[in-house]
Amino acid sequence: MKFSSDEIASVLQQEIENFDSKIDVREVGTVLEVGDGIARVYGLSGVMAGEMVEFPNGAIGLAFNLEENSVGVIILGDYLTIREGDEVKALGTLLSVPAGDAVVGRVLDPLGNPLDGKGPVQSDVTRPVEIIATGVAERQPVSEPMQTGIKAIDSMTPIGRGQRELIIGDRKTGKTAIAIDAILNQKDTGVKCFYIAVGQKDSAVAGVVDVLEKYGAMEYTTVINAGASAPATMQYVAPYAGTAMAEHFMFNGEHALVVYDDLSKQATAYRQMSLLMRRPPGREAFPGDVFYCHSRLLERSSKLSDELGGGSITSLPIIETLEGEVSAYIPTNVISITDGQIYVQPDLFFSGVRPAMNPGISVSRVGGAAQTKAMKKVSGGLRLDLAAFRALEAFAQLGTDLDPATQAQLDRGYRMVELLKQPQYQPLNQAQQVCSLYAGTKGFLDDVPIKTVQQWEKAFLSFLSDKHDKLLSRLEEEGALTEGVVEMLEAAINEFKAGYRPTEEG
Amino acid sequence: MDNPDAVKHETVMDTGAEQLGKTYAQALLSAAEKAGKIDLVVDQLVQLVDTVLAENPQLAAAFASPRIEVEEKCSVIDKLFGESLDPLLVTFLKVMAGRERLGFLGAVSSGAIARYDEMAGRVLAKVTSAVALDDASRSSITQTLEKALGKTVRLEESVDESLLGGLVIRVGDTVFDSSVANQLDVAGKRLRSGFSSKLVEHFDQMTAN
């Protein structure tokens, strides 16, 4: 490929001709001291809180603290080449990032600079990073389902479009895996996904991008990365920047899913900045407004009213706990902000229950309204049944003889736990979930050995998609278990069971 | 490490001292205004700092030193300045001595100048140019600025060849930059970003095959 120099020259000439020289009027200040990603600046007397400033090395800063004699600036970029006495220029605008279709499929830093080597983001649309969330009049209740493709979640803690559902748990319990599965399941639904990595290992983020690419999810996903080696200021801004990009779609009547992975690291980054800015420390040395830091972020996830196009942002914030301690400061804050939480536990995870969701203490406060009728029907008593099963299971361990009814309840419970296990990167659509949950709750699995339940389910689902495609598509369309559908489903289950012989494992 | 002040980095701006200087200057000017001798007091204060203290660093160090008793400082002030300075200014110096603030006389003096300018409706415009200004351009700059700002303008000139041409005028925290160097810089940036977007838009036209 050769570039034609004439064309290039003419474009350049055009640009030069269009350049009109004006007197550049700017508000300036002088760097008094700089370090740890923050600078104290003398001057800038007319600067606004949150206004962008520019350093001579091109780094962008954010006026963060307006003090009597100086301005505290957080530096979003290289602060090692900034010197005392450097001139700082106020840019007169709030921090904004590129948005629109140009950011989809890209891996970006929190300022919208590319990290994927695919060249600069060419977008005419920019959005301010910090805006006040929409008010009461501009919203409507959550009513549409946001399928994660995970049976345990879609049945027991359903998520609706516009909801904030926290994923909370210790390290290495599969929190990110749940979020990634939810992203994979948005394929062909038109939902734009944003994965915002805060303080993660760059290798882990590279792994996520790899998975998303492998399953074709990068076509509708944007990854915003402020890794562990990024300055605290970048980690602080990343969630807001990602939300700003998602808001473009929401305000244009589209839907977006945002994953914040994870907000405990953002709180830590914010704590670092605040302490360096000499804001007074509070509980666990977090600044007094760390609650507002998260609440104003998560309030921006909403379902807009029909007049505004009915777009939505669904968010899945992730919080990492230490030793299952949910009563620490940041976890309690975020639990109280969100519309429910998915609690993942290490003991479940290591006993093979994956996703390791504890149904007893996981809740969804609004998602039920967004469930389809079919799903509501099959999952109705599921949570309570599982809770009863857990209590019974503990009792049964004592080795007492059980009456047949109790034994049957126990057997059903073991099979349901088995059925709710789901391998990673294999989200199921709504119809598939309804079919396998129906089989489980109606007792069709009671004669299947516990160990082969997962195998049975897999074979059953492939049998359905091979032989009963109509049933699946009808379920997906109608979203309800009408009499006709139930008949077809039961017939299909019986037909499958008649011909099914479990293969030996291994 | 005999003299701690000598070690202090010169470029470090002490915003605390500046604030303190402003406060004392405000008090001094209000008192002088009441007595109706504001010009005299400011003039004497500036002279005291710029000539007497600058030429006698030992005196300045003695004023700043906390090891010298207040009474001693006051008697020195009386002996040295009792005759030559206005009684109001002498009293002010003694008040500062009493509060162990004599080391901040420099900050008070610059604070007083700024406040005095402000009261008189004057602003300081720092003009940087590539070549030294002549009288004609000086008066035209002053007139233009006075018209634009609605205040009397005092010019402070400096020469910086790297500007290549044009002027950089700074009034307070606002900079009016018409320098050739800055315009080249802006044009260069716009050319780069404009070109890259055009390149993406018309990629087929620019490539030969």
TrEMBL record, chain A:
<keyword id="KW-0375">Hydrogen ion transport</keyword>
<dbReference type="Pfam" id="PF00006">
    <property type="entry name" value="ATP-synt_ab"/>
</dbReference>
<comment type="function">
    <text>Produces ATP from ADP in the presence of a proton gradient across the membrane. The alpha chain is a regulatory subunit.</text>
</comment>
<feature type="domain" description="ATPase F1/V1/A1 complex alpha/beta subunit N-terminal">
    <location>
        <begin position="25"/>
        <end position="92"/>
    </location>
</feature>
<feature type="domain" description="ATP synthase alpha subunit C-terminal">
    <location>
        <begin position="371"/>
        <end position="496"/>
    </location>
</feature>
<dbReference type="GO" id="GO:0005524">
    <property type="term" value="F:ATP binding"/>
</dbReference>
<dbReference type="InterPro" id="IPR033732">
    <property type="entry name" value="ATP_synth_F1_a_nt-bd_dom"/>
</dbReference>
<dbReference type="InterPro" id="IPR005294">
    <property type="entry name" value="ATP_synth_F1_asu"/>
</dbReference>
<dbReference type="GO" id="GO:0045259">
    <property type="term" value="C:proton-transporting ATP synthase complex"/>
</dbReference>
<dbReference type="Pfam" id="PF02874">
    <property type="entry name" value="ATP-synt_ab_N"/>
</dbReference>
<dbReference type="InterPro" id="IPR000194">
    <property type="entry name" value="ATPase_F1/V1/A1_a/bsu_nucl-bd"/>
</dbReference>
<dbReference type="InterPro" id="IPR027417">
    <property type="entry name" value="P-loop_NTPase"/>
</dbReference>
<dbReference type="InterPro" id="IPR004100">
    <property type="entry name" value="ATPase_F1/V1/A1_a/bsu_N"/>
</dbReference>
<feature type="site" description="Required for activity">
    <location>
        <position position="362"/>
    </location>
</feature>
<feature type="domain" description="ATPase F1/V1/A1 complex alpha/beta subunit nucleotide-binding">
    <location>
        <begin position="149"/>
        <end position="364"/>
    </location>
</feature>
<keyword id="KW-0067">ATP-binding</keyword>
<dbReference type="InterPro" id="IPR000793">
    <property type="entry name" value="ATP_synth_asu_C"/>
</dbReference>
<comment type="subunit">
    <text>F-type ATPases have 2 components, CF(1) - the catalytic core - and CF(0) - the membrane proton channel. CF(1) has five subunits: alpha(3), beta(3), gamma(1), delta(1), epsilon(1). CF(0) has four main subunits: a(1), b(1), b'(1) and c(9-12).</text>
</comment>
<keyword id="KW-0547">Nucleotide-binding</keyword>
<protein>
    <recommendedName>
        <fullName>ATP synthase subunit alpha</fullName>
        <ecNumber>7.1.2.2</ecNumber>
    </recommendedName>
</protein>
<feature type="binding site">
    <location>
        <begin position="169"/>
        <end position="176"/>
    </location>
    <ligand>
        <name>ATP</name>
    </ligand>
</feature>
<keyword id="KW-0472">Membrane</keyword>
From TrEMBL, chain B:
<keyword id="KW-0066">ATP synthesis</keyword>
<dbReference type="GO" id="GO:0005886">
    <property type="term" value="C:plasma membrane"/>
</dbReference>
<dbReference type="InterPro" id="IPR026015">
    <property type="entry name" value="ATP_synth_OSCP/delta_N_sf"/>
</dbReference>
<comment type="similarity">
    <text>Belongs to the ATPase delta chain family.</text>
</comment>
<dbReference type="GO" id="GO:0045259">
    <property type="term" value="C:proton-transporting ATP synthase complex"/>
</dbReference>
<keyword id="KW-0139">CF(1)</keyword>
<dbReference type="GO" id="GO:0046933">
    <property type="term" value="F:proton-transporting ATP synthase activity, rotational mechanism"/>
</dbReference>
<dbReference type="InterPro" id="IPR020781">
    <property type="entry name" value="ATPase_OSCP/d_CS"/>
</dbReference>
<keyword id="KW-1003">Cell membrane</keyword>
<protein>
    <recommendedName>
        <fullName>ATP synthase subunit delta</fullName>
    </recommendedName>
</protein>
<keyword id="KW-0813">Transport</keyword>
<dbReference type="Pfam" id="PF00213">
    <property type="entry name" value="OSCP"/>
</dbReference>
<keyword id="KW-0472">Membrane</keyword>
<dbReference type="InterPro" id="IPR000711">
    <property type="entry name" value="ATPase_OSCP/dsu"/>
</dbReference>
<keyword id="KW-0406">Ion transport</keyword>
<comment type="function">
    <text>F(1)F(0) ATP synthase produces ATP from ADP in the presence of a proton or sodium gradient. F-type ATPases consist of two structural domains, F(1) containing the extramembraneous catalytic core and F(0) containing the membrane proton channel, linked together by a central stalk and a peripheral stalk. During catalysis, ATP synthesis in the catalytic domain of F(1) is coupled via a rotary mechanism of the central stalk subunits to proton translocation.</text>
</comment>
<comment type="function">
    <text>This protein is part of the stalk that links CF(0) to CF(1). It either transmits conformational changes from CF(0) to CF(1) or is implicated in proton conduction.</text>
</comment>
<keyword id="KW-0375">Hydrogen ion transport</keyword>
